[in-house]
């Protein structure tokens, strides 16, 4: 009987261990699957925030927010996607929700300030920036600070912020273009021309800086195209900009000549230049 009892006890123990092993195995597999799901979701989120169609990303994150409204990463993904989709008013509302959450970061507040600047709400943008600790010194922070200072015509502050932002990035072309445009609006045309030239030197594909450079030269009654890299189409567009600048300053005959060059230079029919030329000739 004692042997039977020992055998039964051993069998029961073995079955218990087997059951525990099976249960542990199932839990391990379940945990592994959960880890895989988290990894897959993270990868999908990254794809949606970078290469996916912006409106498709908005739909994805909006559905995710409905299911998990407490997750700040999903709320943040929705706000970023709305900016990418150029739905700036909706983006500002989305960023306000992100900023109201307990896990908010300084980068989130920068996202809110950026979205407010895009819709022209400069006062609230300044408030959002003021809520960020002064120790948070990043290129994005100083870029936005410069833009807000510009809007408030605080020129010394704007120049200081632009200069700091330029020093915090390895790709300063766009911020130099912004700084140059600030100088252009103030009437400091020679300094604007210098900054646009530096922006183009940093990024020869930045057509906005090329066009602004021509505006700065035209404002000084310099109607020669700058010696910079440009395609034939870009050359025609720059001639058109220069022509309009000449006409604006009363140099109508020079403007007519530049418009004729623009029409002749463009590889296709240049409707805007042709219409402007026709209007001048008829007047």
UniProtKB/TrEMBL annotation:
UniProt keywords, alphabetically: Signal
Leader sequence range is 1-21
Q: Which Pfam families match?
A: TPR_16
SUPFAM superfamilies annotated for this entry? TPR-like
What is the designated name of this protein?
Flp pilus assembly protein TadD, contains TPR repeats
Q: Which organism is it from?
A: Pseudophaeobacter arcticus
Classification from the root reads:
Bacteria, Pseudomonadati, Pseudomonadota, Alphaproteobacteria, Rhodobacterales
């Amino acid at each position: 009987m004692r042997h039977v009892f020992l055998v039964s006890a051993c069998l029961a123990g073995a079955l218990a261990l087997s059951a525990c092993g099976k249960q542990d195995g199932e839990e391990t597999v379940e945990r592994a699957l959960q880890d895989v799901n988290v990894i897959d979701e993270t990868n999908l989120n990254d794809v949606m925030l970078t290469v996916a169609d912006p409106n498709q990303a908005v739909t994805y994150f909006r559905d995710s927010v409905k299911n998990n409204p407490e997750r700040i990463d999903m709320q943040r993904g929705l706000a970023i996607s709305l900016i990418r989709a150029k739905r700036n008013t909706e983006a500002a509302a989305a960023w306000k929700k992100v900023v109201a959450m307990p896990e908010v970061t300084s980068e989130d507040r920068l996202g809110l300030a950026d979205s407010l600047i895009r819709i022209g709400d400069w006062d609230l943008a300044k408030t959002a920036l003021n809520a960020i600790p002064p120790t948070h010194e990043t290129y994005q922070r100083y870029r936005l600070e410069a833009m807000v200072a510009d809007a408030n015509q605080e020129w010394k502050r704007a120049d200081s912020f632009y200069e700091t932002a330029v020093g915090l990035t390895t790709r300063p072309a766009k911020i130099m273009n912004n700084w140059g445009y600030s100088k252009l609006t103030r009437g400091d045309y020679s300094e604007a021309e210098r900054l646009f030239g530096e922006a183009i030197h940093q990024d020869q594909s930045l057509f906005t800086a090329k066009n602004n450079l021509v505006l700065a030269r035209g404002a000084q009654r310099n109607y020669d195209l700058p010696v910079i890299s440009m395609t034939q189409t870009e050359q025609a567009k720059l001639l058109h900009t220069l022509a309009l600048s000449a006409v604006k300053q009363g140099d109508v005959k020079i403007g007519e000549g530049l418009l004729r060059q623009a029409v002749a230079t463009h590889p296709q029919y240049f409707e805007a230049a042709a219409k402007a030329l026709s209007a001048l000739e008829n007047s």
